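Attaching the record inline, Q. Sequence:
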Amino acid sequence: MEITLDQDWIEAFLLASVRMVAFLIIAPPFSYNAFPARIKAMLGLGLGLAIAPQVSEGYNALGTGAFFMAVVMELLVGAALGFLVMVVFSAVQSAGNLIDTFGGFQLAQAFDPQSMVNGAQFTRIFQVTALALLFASDGYQLIIGGLMRSFTALPLTGGLDLAEPVSALTGAVSQMFLASVQIAGPLLVVLFLADAGLGLLTRVAPALNAFALGFPLKILLTLSLASMVFLALPRIVSALVSAIEGALAGVG
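Structure, as predicted:
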C-alpha cells in the first residue's frame, strides 16, 4: 500500500500553524496563562488545519533553508499581529489604571500572574471583565476571523513590509490612549471636581483640613460611580473587537 503525501499542503499547513500559535501566545484573550500551553498549541494546529486548503493553493514547496527562514518569518508575523491585538485591547486595562490613580487605589498594587498585569483593583477588575465579555459575546471568534483574513493581506512566504505593521501599531497605540481616556473620562472629571472643591474648601476654612478627608471621599465617589463605567463595558469591548478585526485584516 502506498501513501502519497502532498508536500506543498504539509508545508503550508505547518507555516500557517506557526503563525497561529505565535498569535495565540501573545494576543488576548488566548494569552491568559490559565489556558495551558498544550491547549494553545492544539488550537493553533486546528486553526492551521482549517486554513490549510486556502493557503496551500498556489504554494510551492521550499528547500530546507528557505523553509526554516519562512518559519521564522511566520513567527514574526504572528507575534506582530498578536502584539497589535494586545495593544488595542490594553485600552480597558489602561482605563482601570487611570481610575486607580485618580481614585486613590494605586497604593494597593498587586501582580496577577495569570493575566501578567501589575495594577490595583480596578485595573485587574476591568481586565478580567473584558476577557469574560470577549467569551460571553463571542468576540474571540471575530478576532480569530480577523486572523484568518490576515493570510489574504500577508500570504505565506510573501515577506513582511515593516512599514505597514509599524503604521498600524502607531495607530493602535494612539487609539489605545484615546479609548482609555474616553472610558474613564466621566469618572475622572468627577474626581477632579472633588479635588478642586476640597482645594477651595481648604482656602476658605483652613482649620477644617479638608484634604484629610480627600482620600476616603474620592474612594467613596469611585466606588459609587464605577458602575457607570461597567455599564458601558459591553459596548466598549464590542468597539475594540471591531477595531482589532479591521487592524488584522488591514495589515499587509
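The CA atoms of residues 6 and 61 lie 10 Å apart. The radius of gyration is 23 Å.

More tomorrow.
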